[in-house]
Write a structure and sequence with these properties.
The protein is of the alpha+beta class and about 210 residues long. Helices cover about 45% and strands about 25% of the residues. The chain has helices spanning about 1-5, 20-30, 35-40, 50-70, 155-205; strands at about 50, 75-80, 80-90, 90-95, 100-105, 110-120, 125-135, 145. The protein is elongated and about 90 Å long.
């Protein structure tokens, strides 16, 4: 995978004319207004939360990232919002876990989102764009990238892909370990049950 990433050419296209299907699906929803936060609580939508003047660029970055991850064998998923009841000062209301964007490889799932940072970019005076891993593994490299004085977020996407893949490797290893532990517990339980059955058979024979 490392060699594939090093040879990867990530293109952020100048337009959204032939955008990734999930970007194409989300674009009109995100243009309804606001910064995308409310939309993700109501509709299945890519995790992009930026003001309208930054939306096209953020979607082009998401498009380039999605295509790059798919070329490495990852599946790009966008979840449905998950409604749940809540009590607000004694009044029953409804809220939702917002729609999430996930990159899946085997059992490993890495969440990502694009949002605006608190700093302003030196070039345009707008808030910098931030790409973030939402469920990073502790101690595994970087988990966020943003516009810098000398480097745009677009120019850092290969580094982001590398760290996303590294997080996926660690997550897969943990899933494999968990599966192995569960299998060992199951085998021990089966062996114990078998021994108990055989012991009971011996007791039954002795009673006869």
């Amino acid at each position: 995978v490392r060699s594939k990433i090093e040879g990867l050419s990530i293109e952020c296209r100048p337009t959204l004319d032939d955008a990734h299907p999930l970007v194409k699906m989300s674009s009109p929803l995100l243009r309804e207004g606001g910064d995308g936060r409310e939309v993700r609580h109501r509709r299945r939508c890519v995790a992009v939360e930026v003001r309208p003047e930054q939306l096209d660029r953020a979607l082009r970055i998401a498009d380039g990232l999605f295509r790059a991850m798919e070329s490495l064998g990852y599946a790009v998923e966008v979840t449905e919002p998950q409604p749940f009841p809540r009590n607000d000062r004694g009044i029953a209301t409804q809220d939702a876990v917002p729609s999430e964007t996930r990159l899946r490889f085997g059992d490993a799932v890495v969440g990502i989102d694009l949002h605006e940072g608190t700093q302003l970019s030196a070039a345009e005076g707008k808030p910098v764009l931030v790409l973030e891993i939402t469920n990073p593994e502790p101690g595994v490299g970087r988990s966020s990238w943003c516009d810098l004085k000398t480097r745009s977020l677009e120019s850092q996407l290969k580094e982001a892909v590398r760290e996303i893949a590294l997080n996926a490797v660690v997550k897969q290893a943990k899933a494999d370990d968990q599966r192995q532990r569960e299998e060992e517990v199951r085998r021990e339980a089966d062996a114990k049950a078998k021994a108990e059955r055989e012991l009971q058979m011996i007791r039954d024979l002795d009673e006869r």
